[in-house]
Amino acid sequence: MTYRERWIRAIARKPKGLFGRGHEWTYALMDGPGTERRMIGTRVLLDELVEDTKFPGNDAYHALSLAQKAFLAGSKNWVGYPSGSEVADPLATNLEAVTLDMLAFSTLLRVYGRAGAGQRYQDMAMELRTEATEESVEAARAEVAESLRGGAGSLNDVVIHKRDATPDAYLSQWYDALRGRLRAFSVGGKHCGDDAPGRDRKS
């Protein structure tokens, strides 16, 4: 299973069960442009999001809790899964999500042995999180585009290895997913792509 940044919004709640003490929720789920669909029932949505819905502390439960709280507060914001970020328009450039991607990319670059590039992505993310202006966002787009160009020593075609020198497929796939999202940001894309690849969280 592949984990993607998916977007959830609670849109209705009605009483159910004995004396109406319980509630049945209706949600909207969106994976990208033109994909919004309604899902009735928390269990139905959880089954859609994750295979093992009984795993304690699952990000899906947290995202659903945030979506329910937003609904009860009168907000129409969407909540990201697995990130937990809350936004009005998931398809607009989301600096919260972009900077989190930059920080994750920074960590993977350090694991790969590119500490300098990793530090620059970290600095760029924290600069945007501290004070994002139209000029600083455009400068970040340009810097990301430059760093992801091809050629010798580029950040493309990276394979991350474990300490025993064997390829780490999980981290390498995550690196590729983050790189794709950052490339979309660099050209002003409204990207709802893959996040970290799926993995058995009990292992």
Number of helices: 6
**Total strand segments:** 5
Low-pLDDT parts are 190-203
Number of spatially distinct domains: 2
Largest sheet: 5 strands, antiparallel
Q: What level of helicity do the residues show?
A: 40-55%
Shape: elongated
Overall structural class, as computed from helix and strand content, comes to alpha+beta
Strand content: 5-15%
Element order, helices and strands? EEEHHEEHHHH
| Rg calc | 19 Å
Alpha carbon gap, first and last residue: 15 Å
Largest sheet: spatial strand order: 3-2-1-4-5
Whole-number mean pLDDT:
81
What are the main properties of this structure?
203 residues, alpha+beta, 43% helix, 15% strand
